[in-house]
UniProtKB/TrEMBL annotation:
<protein>
    <submittedName>
        <fullName>DUF2851 family protein</fullName>
    </submittedName>
</protein>
<dbReference type="Pfam" id="PF11013">
    <property type="entry name" value="DUF2851"/>
</dbReference>
<dbReference type="InterPro" id="IPR021272">
    <property type="entry name" value="DUF2851"/>
</dbReference>
């Protein structure tokens, strides 16, 4: 058993609260369980109880065993001086205040129904193939599922906001430079995201602005700074000469940038192609950041990123080896990934920063993007067909799997916790 189960029991009062007594035999009445504290300090703040004829207001601490009070050294921590009740599963030691008085203890192990215990064991103690609630996942109500997925998506957005904020602060609140860094990271996808981000962060964005009308030089800048112009191919030599000139002119340093990888990538995702596409996009859209911010429809954003590479890349994926000619502008599927991982989160963060938050627009945009396809989304769609119908759902399910299912945080999940809430309070 884990303490978070006791938190759940106390928070929702899922135990027999009739004729309660402390371990010292005094009559106990719970007026309010308090507010759950998920940070350091007592587990519940501002609880209200009555012991005998005395009213108490203060904090509640919860442990599996009473003796854990001393194991965690709460007796020396002033944050626990205002604890008015110690709630435990097993009472194996009396706990004292600094003045020598006993802190009242409530023992729960004989006050919880068999049904709740069985639900808990089924959820968190027995083996499962995919996720803990896999037997019940198809039975959750549609409204409950939709509500939880929306919350999960905005939880995920909040984490993206923290990433954007960190880059923004490092750039001296330069929005265009920050957008460039985050966009480059998304163009690198999982394998090359950090290498692309490091490349972008190493450049003064004013250089990109100066070269925006010269695709050759912009391409040379990106590929050269990423360290992937390595060939005696005629076009590679031309880019290398341009990059050497730019490196000298702008005092560039690329010695600490991770080397982008080609291994196990489909040719369309080669770093040469993605960086060439970025150069084409910035050549086509000199004021890309503002255009993204001003766009209120998905089609407007697609148009911004439908830029064709230079002629050389229509016949090459990397330097040297050619192939029959084909255009290499970003596909809709790739732009969808950029929308999901960069553009929509950036628009969300920027609007909040400017005090013009538009949650409806963000939800409308993300819900209009097709659902992502991967093994995690497949798990949920097999358990409950049709769970993921758009990118908001798939992003929410990725958050659910990573931050709740994989960490066994079922009691913090609206779906998992509801399984225990449905159990009778006491039998």
């Amino acid at each position: 058993m884990r303490e978070d189960f006791l938190y759940h029991l106390w928070k929702f009062q899922k135990f027999n609260s009739e004729a309660l007594k402390t371990s010292e035999g005094e009559v106990l009445l719970i007026l309010h369980p308090g507010s759950h504290n998920e940070y350091s300090g007592p587990d519940f703040f501002n609880a209200k109880i009555q012991i005998a004829e005395q009213l108490w207001a203060g904090n509640v601490e919860i442990h599996l065993k009473s003796s854990y009070w001393y194991v965690h050294h709460h007796e020396t921590d002033p944050n626990y001086d205002n604890v008015i009740l110690h709630v435990v599963w097993e009472h194996d030691a009396d706990i004292f205040r600094k003045d020598g008085s006993v802190i009242p203890t409530l023992v729960l192990n004989d006050k919880v129904s068999h049904e709740i215990l069985e639900s808990y064991k089924e959820l968190l103690e027995r083996k499962h193939l995919k996720i803990n609630c896999e037997k019940d996942f198809d039975g959750f109500e549609g409204f409950q599922m939709q509500h939880w997925l929306e919350r999960l998506y905005f939880e995920r957005l909040e984490k993206r906001s923290i990433e954007i904020q960190d880059v923004l602060e490092g750039n001296g609140n330069n929005w265009e430079a920050t957008f460039f860094v985050m966009l480059c990271r998304s163009f690198g996808l999982n394998l090359n995201g950090e290498a692309f981000r490091a490349m972008a962060a190493s450049l003064d964005f004013r250089i990109i602005q100066k070269l925006a009308n010269d695709r050759l030089r912009l391409e040379a800048l990106f590929l050269g700074q990423a360290g992937i112009i390595k060939s005696d191919d005629k076009y590679a030599l031309e880019l290398a000469r341009e990059y050497d000139y730019l490196k000298h002119k702008f005092s560039l340093n690329n010695g600490f940038i991770p080397q982008p990888q080609f291994f196990r990538l489909r040719p369309d995702n080669f770093p040469t192609i993605r960086l060439a596409q970025l150069a084409a996009i910035y050549t086509k859209n000199a004021n890309l950041f503002q255009q993204v911010i001003n766009a209120n429809a998905l089609e407007e954003l697609y148009i911004l990123f439908e830029a064709e590479t230079s002629e050389y890349w229509t016949c090459h994926y990397n330097f040297g080896r050619s192939h029959p000619k084909r255009q290499k502008k970003p596909s809709r599927a790739f732009i969808d990934l950029v929308l999901i991982n960069c553009l929509v989160p950036f628009k969300d963060y920027y609007s909040k920063y400017m005090g013009q938050a538009d949650e409806d627009l963000i939800q409308e945009l993300i819900s209009a993007i097709p659902v992502e396809k991967n093994s995690i989304i497949n798990i949920f769609n097999v358990l409950r067909p049709g769970t993921a119908q758009n990118a908001m759902h798939s992003q929410a399910l990725l958050e659910l799997k990573k931050e709740y299912c994989d960490l066994d945080k079922c009691l913090y999940c609206e779906l998992g916790a509801s399984l225990l809430k449905k159990s009778p309070k006491y039998i």
